[in-house]
Amino acid sequence: MSFSGSVKDELSRHLSHARHCQIAELAAILGFCGEVIKLRNGHFLLKISTENVTVARKVFTLVQKTFNIVACVSIRRNMNRQNISYLIVITDSSDVLRILKATKRVGEDGCIASADRLVNPLVIGRICCRRAFLRGAFLCGGSMSDPGKAYHFEIVCSKLSAANQACDLICSFGMDAKVVPRKKTYVVYLKEGSQIVDILNIMEAHIALMELENIRIIKEVRNSINRKVNCETANISKTVSAAIKQVKDIEYLRDSIGLERLPEGLEEIALARLSDPEATLKELGEMVTPAVGKSGVNHRLRKISEITEKVRRKQGGAL
């Protein structure tokens, strides 16, 4: 199962204790997957269609626990696409009206509310209800990338007005959600790992949150090690390149004017470098008498380089 699938599976098994939170979560599901049909006789029919078994399971549980209604569930297999869809239907008009009135999807005049917004603000007035609503929204229209590869959380909405409402709802928890068009839909998304941790906590997907945190820790440790290795590799490369140039400079002086013409301290460090081209500055300093510190060795090697350049210019030589 994918990480996104495991999150949805966990959320589908979470049932709020408060009835108002159950209604808020059901309102989200109706906003994404529900269809209200008003028949000619004035009665209502409610259909909830989904290809996700976790959503079907959650709808059935919410309807039964919150309203004491047993919904009819049918399973259909699409032979062309090789997938299964689930249809939850409530045919009793009085039961449908109870659900619609509780979720504020029908007015006192019996008219169905506009589908431009996902939910009536009265349904999500409490913070706990906003959490429940986001839980239902992610179940129906959400997905997450594998955190081992990238951090990406999104909820897909069919209308811009609905996407903006979902975005505002997420941002009300102090996050920086964005909306972007994708084909004929609108996507509300989060990209930062810390904010995805926060949204999992808000939706109360605590098991998935701990799994994500473990992955984040492993990635951070791995990245830290890689940075240190790269830094050390760069330092080693720089040191080796400097040592190679030092040896070439000393060899040029030896072959052109002779090292004995150098001041005693420079000659001593030059011979030490030729005897051990791979030695560090500290090791070179310990090879001369009296011993010299790293800065002293570096100063002498820099003087040798300057002398080499002067000799090259004077003699017109080249490496």
Could you estimate the helical fraction of the residues in percent? 55-70%
- Please tell me the overall pLDDT: 87
CATH second-level architecture of the largest domain: Roll
* Number of DSSP E strands: 8
- Placed side by side, the strands forming the largest sheet appear as 1-2-4-3
CATH topology of the largest domain: Endonuclease I-creI
Relative strand content: 5-15%
Q: Which blocks of ≥5 consecutive residues have pLDDT under 50?
A: none
The CATH class of the largest domain is: Alpha Beta
Q: What structural class do the secondary elements suggest?
A: alpha+beta
Separation of termini?
63 Å
Alpha-carbon Rg, integer: 36 Å
Number of domains: 2
Shape: rod-shaped
Spell out the helices and strands N to C: HHEEHEEHHEEHEEHHHHH
CATH superfamily of the largest domain: Homing endonucleases
- Count of runs of 4 or more consecutive helical residues: 11
Largest sheet data: 4 strands, antiparallel
